[in-house]
Design brief:
Blueprint lengths: L4 E4 L10 E4 L8 E2 L14 E7 L8 H11 E12 L4 H5 L20 H5 L7 E8 L7 H12 L1 H8 L7 E8 L2
Parallel strand pairs: 1-2, 1-4, 2-3, 4-5
Antiparallel strand pairs: 5-7, 6-7
């Protein structure tokens, strides 16, 4: 059985082997679709893996997007989301960015976290299996040491060091819980 991998907001740097979805026809996506329009052109519980590389910050409604990703994903599907870290200058220089993300942004979708219990914004449920800073980016010298610390203790980094030495990107590796 073939695994279905979807790259939402693929742009020109498409994820290898994935079905690319984008609203910009210049990027030549496999599926031309505006991700702010629901439903997405996939059957319920049909996708094994979702990739979203620096796309979620551009969406109008993050909760609606994650709810739709949940709808199209199979149980135990992997969802990998890369976003600019809220302290990064890259988060703020792009006038099309509508949202900013911290290490706790996805806890609102984790049924085991108090944020999800206190603020049940969506039926979508994900477990954050991994949180990484600057994954896949070129990093040198002191930045590499800061990244090691941030990846080991993300909450401590965010509270005590991120304002002094802001990193650039967050990667959330989520698992769909159905």
């Amino acid at each position: 059985m073939t695994r279905i991998v979807v790259d939402l907001g693929a742009g020109i740097n498409k994820y290898p082997g994935a079905i690319s979805v984008d609203s910009n026809p210049i990027t030549n996506p496999d599926i031309l679709h505006n991700l702010d329009e629901f439903p997405y052109p996939f059957e319920t519980s049909s996708v094994d893996e979702v990739r979203m590389d620096n796309t979620l910050e551009h969406m109008v409604d993050v909760i609606a997007v994650l709810t739709e990703i949940y709808r199209i994903s199979k149980s135990n599907a992997v969802v990998v989301i890369d976003v600019p870290y809220f302290r990064a200058r890259w988060a703020f220089i792009d006038p099309t960015h509508k949202h900013f993300f911290t290490v706790d942004s996805m806890t609102y979708f984790d049924p085991n976290h108090e944020h999800s219990v206190l603020y049940p914004y969506s039926p979508a449920k994900f477990i954050c299996e991994k949180l990484l800073f600057n994954d896949g980016l070129v990093n040198k010298n002191i930045k590499t040491m800061v990244i090691r610390f941030a990846n080991r203790l993300p909450g401590a980094y965010e509270r005590w060091l991120s304002h002094l030495y802001p990193l650039d990107q967050l990667t959330f590796v989520l698992r769909v819980i159905k």
